[in-house]
Amino acid sequence: MSLPSIFNSTETEKLVARIERLSSESQPLWGKMSVAQMMAHCALPYEMDHRNPPKIGFFLKWMMKLFFKKSMLNDQPYHRNIQTAPPFRMVQEKEFYEERKRLIALIQASQAMGEGYYQGLPHYALGPLSSKEWSTLLFKHLDHHLRQFGV
């Protein structure tokens, strides 16, 4: 099974529609984040693509490539309750409508920038990725959290 491409406008519209079905009262089926924290968490990978990457050490980078890259980039959904990496943890409460607007804008901007922009773009831990790998990574992560909140 091939995952939908974040660079396809129809698929982007479907993701946005799922996000718009969330409300400030939406509760997670698993995990600890509020819906606003989840959207802030999901926005980070779009902002960290290269403009603001977290600093991680050589050993962690090596571990990510060796042990996690394959599962991060395959077509299988992420499992429930997987550990969140420290740079992605949300501890402060967030404002629902602000975070929803920000996440939707980032998703739409990525779709508009297109595959060419992402081709070969380095990931902070996994190194250079193809545009298909970027699409898989971003889609799987967002889909995981939208399913967490039942949409």
Could you describe the 3D structure shown?
This protein has 151 residues and is mainly alpha-helical. The chain has one domain (9-148). It is 54% helix and 3% strand. It has 5 helices and 2 strands. A hairpin with a 3-residue loop joins strand 1 (122-123) and strand 2. The mean pLDDT is 89.
Q: How does the overall form come out from the CA principal axes?
A: globular
Spatial strand sequence of the major β-sheet: 1-2
Radius of gyration: 15 Å
Number of helices: 5
Helical residues, percent: 40-55%
Rounded mean pLDDT is: 89
SSE succession: HHHHEEH
Content-based structural category: mainly alpha
Give the percentage of residues in beta strands.
under 5%
Largest sheet: 2 strands, antiparallel
Number of domains: 1
Labels describing this entry:
single chain, two-stranded antiparallel sheet, mainly alpha, 2 strands, 3% strand, 5 helices, 151 residues, 54% helix
Summarize the structure.
This protein has 151 residues and is an all-alpha fold.
SSE map:
Blueprint: H1 9-20, H2 35-47, H3 58-73, H4 96-118, E1 122-123, E2 127-128, H5 131-148
